[in-house]
Design goal:
The chain is an all-alpha fold. The protein has one domain. The protein is built from 3 helices and no strands.
Amino acid sequence: MIKVKARGSESIQQMLKRFKKMCEKEGLIKDIKKQSYYEKPSEKNRRRSRKSRPLN
């Protein structure tokens, strides 16, 4: 779980910016976008096999 505490006289906008950066680092935004639409099982397998193939 991501927690953000205020640092001294930090504004809400600065805290929100830090929170967004932390979410990006954890990969939460990427996962949410990936799960926002249905992906067929065959497409999942195809994507995984492409990912595991070495680059030439």
